[in-house]
Specification:
single chain; 304 residues; mainly beta; Neuraminidase; 4-stranded antiparallel sheet; 2 helices
Amino acid sequence: MNEVTVAFSSQAVLGESPVWSPSIARLLWVDTLGASLNIFDPITGQNVAHAMPSPLGFVAETPAGQWIIGTACHVERVSRSGERHRIATVPHDQEGYRFNDASLDPSGRLWVGLMNEELKEGSGYLYRLDPDGAWHTVDSGFTLINGIDWSRDRSTLYVTDSRQGVIYAYDHDPLSGEVKNRRSLILISPNKGKPDGLTVDREGFLLSVLFDGAAIARISPEGYIASTIALPVPRPTSCAFDATGQHLFVTSARLGLSKSELKRAPASGALLRVDYQRILERQSQLSSATLMKQGNCPLPEVPD
């Protein structure tokens, strides 16, 4: 069995925002520019798509099992059949801005990024929408905000600025939702790709999907790349685990790729499935074998 396979052969323009739905045991994801909300069943391999307004920035599931989406600068509740009801509009709602990525914490607070579609430097915001409907401007100065998640103990918030190639870390109070002390966790070189969506694995490592890098970087909490996972698409966008944590689903994009590039990478736009635990086991075995080999090397002679 291959470690990376095509779960669903979609041709998404900009696949994004995968999230596992515990309430229906399916994967939710969006095609931002293709304007669809997708529900994928990993058992049957079937994908149901609901047409939505474009752009569609994110989908998330609340602790109560409700689905919410971001359309332009609005947060909407969406039913299982695709019917929508607007519940909030971001404070900085203005022409040329839209939601881009989001994540819900266990308390039901929505953490969401707002971006300028022309990618004006420093024009983006990070917001928190509390269950009582109150908006909070958490931070600003981003260019292309992406990849929002927390450390395992929720004491650290991670936020990505793709255009700057930076993943930031903040001190986070999981009770109040307050953050402070923003610092750069890692700056990823442009030749490795642009850090896009991310999730945190069971060991606390950040999995940052590298757009234009055809890979996922596994980053330690200390901010170094421990390993990478190669992908068969040049523009992967985001990732999410299934309920078991065994498999990682990865969205991807066809956006901006030439005919020749698509011919070389026909899976572009597809939903991928990564056998994550198997990859970790293989990488661990390779590391052990390397250490054993190094340990068997003769010691250099030391002059008297």
